[in-house]
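To fix ideas, we reproduce below one chain and its tokenised fold.
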Amino acid sequence: MISSSEYAGPGVTHVNAVAFAHARAAAEAAGVAVRALTDLGDLDQAVRLFARIWGRDANPPMSLELLRAFAKAGNYVSGAFEGDRLVGACAGFFHAPSEDTLHSHIAGVSPGLTGRSVGFALKLHQRAWAMCRGVDRIAWTFDPLVSRNAYFNVVKLGARPVEYMPNFYGLMLDTVNGDGDSDRLLVHWSLRDPGVTEACGRPGERRPDPALTAGAVVALGTAPDGSPEPGRLDGGTSLVAVPPDITALRASAPDLAARWRRAVRDAMTDLMARGATVTGFDRTRGYVLRRDA
């Protein structure tokens, strides 16, 4: 459940009310209560949760002091609770005054709740919270090699990648990112876009649209031995494959994981430099990039 008092803003419009209803339905479906975090005890739970998820007990991705300052300054800090236990958290901050974008810096869900759509509930709470404050867009980054995150961001939420950023954070050295380059895709989530509204109102698995990949050429595929296999970069619609589980691959075959990093980076940056944009993600074929004629 979600408290409507969290959505105090410039006014509750019909569109905002729909966003609120979608957020509430997602939280109920996930079996969690999502709310803003302001109490020191709750914020400390979030710090410890992030530390467990990223395997950084000695150096958590977020400190208590920073989360406290974020919340006090009116930024977004929220948590998903199963009873009294915090099982997911998300924090973001506002861009420069000339922009209306909220940057969603970090979000994580306890590994034991995988498949419960707690992350979906958190993002829909963030969307409703932002919309009721007059924000039209949320931005964030994610590792383009993590296929489950690509599917979640591009398909389930309807966000659109706008920039490929090689080694954005530098060396991170945690259990999520490993010890390789920290490439990121920057995505923009247009909160009032009809496609986003439709995606947020349709929880569950999304079936790929055959029209999305019709006539597509393979810019990067997967060879029979599981290695990246470069293809053509001249298609109007192109497909860029990613490994099915990069986390497992980093542990079992780090050299191959590094080859995938370089291959995806080369294909994506080349295609985007030629004017292609990411328009979708297929679980079996990878990113779908389309270049307008």
